[in-house]
Amino acid sequence: MPGCVLAIEGLGKSFISGGQNVPVLAGLSLAVNEGESLAVMGRSGSGKSTLLNLLCGLETPDTGRITIVGESFDHHGKSGPDDRWGELRRRSIGVVFQEANLMPALSLLENVRLRAYLADQPAGGERQWLERLGVGAEADRYPDQVSGGQAQRAALAMVFAMAPALILADEPTGSLDRHTADEVADCLFAMQRDNGCALVLATHDAELAGRCDHLLDLTQPG
Ligand SMILES: Nc1ncnc2c1ncn2[C@@H]1O[C@H](COP(=O)(O)OP(=O)(O)OP(=O)(O)O)[C@@H](O)[C@H]1O
Ligand SMILES: [Mg+2]
Questions:
Q1: 118 with 162: CB under 8 angstroms?
Q2: Residues having C-beta closer than 5 Å to ion ligand 2
Q3: Helices H, strands E: what count in the chain?
Q4: For a tag site, which of 89, 144, 191, 201 has the least CB within 10 Å?
Q5: Is the separation of the CB atoms in 156 and 184 below 8 Å?
Q6: What is the pTM of this model?
Q7: What spatial distance separates the first Cα and last Cα of the chain, rounded to whole Å?
Q8: 50 CA distance to ligand 2 centroid (A)?
Q9: Which ligand is nearest to the CA of 22?
Q10: pLDDT tens-digit profile of 38-49?
């Protein structure tokens, strides 16, 4: 039986906008197991990024509980950061955004090495991750010396090198042309399958969403 990596129960989040309380997510419950992928779709403003931010502790829910690899967070409404989120982000949750978030002063290889080191992974396999993602030849270049697609592959290599239990990807191919987007997505799904990690992928791209095991459409109420 695959283990449960992520469970959400009754998750709710509102923002105050123009003095009004605007609900974004209400009563959301779901679970994602090891090796499973969940696509999060919905029109712009439906709460996809808000959900991903909640799932890595960058936002605090108003209601509900989030459990990731056995750590439960239900202290909504309390102020102040919970140290356990930092620890989960360091070792267990890999995050990929639309634009690759690389350190500009480090080469692609050094970026991957740093991420693996921070996640307490043994040194040595970093160059192979870049090779598997098709950017081995660019390993010693700096982020401003590679294309957007190459930088995004390096960002994925960083995530896989940390051996996360959960990957949160917010429009990971949104800034790429169709062909490059498909190649990057192929890498993402192949590595996710091989490593057995759980994936939550926010996207507007129905084709990409169709490659996931489950679909959550935030445009649909309930
Ligand atoms: N920090 C914030 N303060 C106030 N409102 C916010 C905040 N963050 C998000 N919102 C609002 O919450 C709603 C959901 O935003 P979110 O970024 O999650 O949407 P999204 O589905 O990711 O959209 P897109 O497809 O454009 O990326 C929007 O109405 C947005 O304006
Ligand atoms: Mg978004």
A1: yes
A2: 48-49
A3: 7, 9
A4: 144
A5: yes
A6: 0.93
A7: 29
A8: 7
A9: 1
A10: 999 999 999 999
Q: Encoding tokens for residue 7?
A: 């469970």
Helix (H, G, I), strand (E, B) or coil at 109: helix
Ligand 2: centre distance to CA 129 (Å): 27
Q: What is the pLDDT of residues 155-189, one digit of tens each?
A: 999 999 999 999 999 999 888 888 888 988 998 99
Give the amino acid at 82: D
Centre of ligand 2 to C-alpha 40, Å, is 10
pLDDT digits (tens, 9 = 90+) for 194-205: 889 999 999 999
Q: What does the block give as tokens for 8?
A: 């959400």
For residue 24, what is the DSSP state?
E
Residue minimizing CA distance to atom 26 of ligand 1: 44
- C-alpha to C-alpha distance for 67 and 207, rounded to whole angstroms: 29
- Cβ(15) to ligand 1 under 6 A? yes
Q: Dmax over Cα atoms in the chain, in whole Å?
A: 53
d(Cα 115, Cα 161) in Å, to the nearest integer?
7
Task: Extract the tokens encoding 102.
Answer: 């690389």
For ligand 1, mutation pick of 13, 24, 25, 52 (most atoms within 8 Å of CB): 24
> Is residue 54 within 8 Å of 13, Cβ to Cβ?
yes
